[in-house]
UniProtKB/TrEMBL annotation:
A Pfam family matched in the record: p450
Source organism superkingdom: Eukaryota
Name the UniProt record assigns to this protein: Cytochrome P450
Protein's organism: Gymnopus androsaceus JB14
Cited Gene3D superfamilies: Cytochrome P450
Length: 498
């Protein structure tokens, strides 16, 4: 895990140098965009600290102060321009990639040069794999995913007559990691303790490392990146597991003189080999792609949030169980069956809206000066984003926005002509969990089916509750990210028939 001491004198010195760098590099074109809070050398530090310790407060303040407009917040060595309202979101969605670029902002956000592999951003061919062969394989591979869900819960949370306390956060990572890996790399690797431990900790370390590196000014990032990541050790560890598999697949291609050799597995490694070209078809390159997809798939707090919400709202359990039992009787544990679970879909979507982890979405790096439809121009080099959490809690968009309504979207889908709308996988200008437009998260289809499969299994096999009835353990904000309680417990027992 990350061991950087943010309170050390050396780190404090780096942070002060970053403030000085930001102060002297203030882009004059940004003067016309209002600033949230003071922007002076020392006063600006207060804003930076407030944002890093609780971004939600600042984002809500900006949302209230500049509705349907934009404002800026000082970061360590640059500015973030925050866009509020549907009109601004639509402007971002309509922009071309030559104006607003998603690849550069991902590279900056995750500091991929130091935490992953820069080629992952320079040539992100794996995104097309997630969008097409991976998504198309959900139906044919769902039986395996279901099998792994059953086996994972049997190993981690055996159904017992008495209540058992389960650490929600860490267990959620283990469950999601193992289930996703059954789909990605299959048996037996998906159950290998070292592989699962590597994936879980690597995903967490990437995000934590990036957050810490991004506290430093640009000219100090290479130094921070060198000392605050474990990429070489992680790659070596991953190679031990993946190199024999990749080398065997390459040997099979050579033996049969074709990529479509007999018995070829339908998994992530095969999909990558099908798409990779020349120098990309090496063990180090392919391992880095696998790890990159694993980071996106496993570093999700949404299952933990769903677990907390389920335990906090016992009134939704019976309606959900009735729906699941009816659907499974008709369609079995299949992708088609999961698609028919509308109440469960609504519960998950409401969890994503109400408790979603992302404070900022649709983040883009401005490559060419960009003008919003209200006339505000943002200069090149600045990052633009949309505040999803506060957007999702806007009373003008959602009635009783601060109330968790599990069947909010089920009721919306029950209206005439709206039966296929309002699904958890369907982004729009009001529902931003997965972003919007052509750059919406390509992995959302697998994520939603996996999460619904996990929640449905819990409902069929267990009773759940919180230590204090109806009280979800308090979350924390780290910058713009909402982190569910990492110490909270959820109690499980074998389902008791009423």
């Amino acid at each position: 895990m990350i061991s950087a001491d943010l309170g050390s004198p050396q780190t404090a010195l780096f942070l002060l140098l970053g403030l000085a760098w930001a102060a002297v590099s203030f882009p004059s074109q940004l003067n016309a965009i209002p600033t949230l809070g003071p922007s002076g050398f020392l006063s600006g530090y207060i804003v930076k600290y407030r944002f890093s310790s609780n971004g939600r407060e600042l984002l809500q303040e900006g949302y209230d102060k500049y509705p349907n407009g934009v404002y800026k917040i000082a970061l360590m060595d640059n500015w973030e321009v925050i866009a509020n309202g549907r009109m601004m979101i639509e402007d971002i969605q309509k922009a071309s990639d030559t104006q607003l670029d998603i690849k550069e902002v991902i590279a900056d956000t995750l500091q991929v040069k130091y935490t992953l592999n820069e080629q992952v951003i320079l040539d992100p061919y794996h995104i097309a794999i997630v969008r097409t062969p991976l998504t198309r394989s959900i139906a044919s591979r769902f039986a395996e995913v279901r099998e792994e869900i059953v086996a994972t819960f049997l190993d981690l949370i055996p159904a017992q007559e008495d209540w058992v306390k389960i650490p929600a956060y860490t267990t959620s990572f283990q469950i999601v990691g193992r289930t996703a890996n059954r789909f990605f790399v299959g048996l037996p690797l998906c159950r290998d303790p070292d592989w699962l431990d590597l994936n879980t900790h690597f995903a967490v370390n990437v995000f934590l490392s990036a957050q810490i590196i991004n506290r430093f000014p640009r000219f100090l990032k290479p130094i921070a990146g060198r000392f605050l990541t474990r990429m070489p050790a992680s790659m070596k560890r991953a190679n031990k597991h993946l190199a024999p598999i990749i080398e065997d697949r390459l040997a099979k291609e050579e033996e049969y003189k074709t990529k479509d050799w007999p018995g070829k597995p339908n998994d992530l490694i095969s999909w990558l080999l099908d798409e990779a070209k020349n120098e990309q078809r090496t063990v180090p390159e392919l391992v880095s792609r696998v790890l990159s997809i694993e980071v996106a798939a496993i570093h999700t707090t949404n299952f933990c949030n769903a677990l907390y919400e389920l335990a906090a709202h016992p009134e939704v359990i019976e309606p959900l169980r009735e729906e699941i039992e009816t659907v499974v009787k008709e369609s079995g544990w299949t992708k088609e069956g999961i698609s028919k679970m509308r109440k469960l879909d609504s519960f998950l979507k409401e969890t994503l809206r109400f408790s979603g982890a992302g404070g900022l979405v649709d983040r883009r790096k401005v490559l060419q000066d960009f003008t919003f439809s209200n006339g505000t121009t943002v200069p090149a080099g600045v990052t633009i984003s949309v505040p999803s959490y506060v957007h999702h809690h806007d009373e003008a968009l959602y009635e009783n926005a601060y109330t968790f309504d599990a069947f909010r979207f089920y009721n919306m889908r029950s209206r005439e002509g709206e039966s296929i709308k309002h699904q958890a996988i369907s982004p729009n200008f009001d529902y931003l969990t997965f972003g919007t437009g052509r750059h919406a998260c390509p992995g959302r289809f697998f994520a939603v089916y996996e999460l619904k499969g996990l929640i449905a299994h819990i409902l069929m096999l267990y009773d759940v509750k919180l230590e204090e009835e109806g009280v979800i353990p308090p979350h924390k904000w780290r910058g713009s990210s909402k982190i569910p309680s990492q110490t909270g417990m959820v109690l499980f027992r074998k389902r008791q028939e009423i």
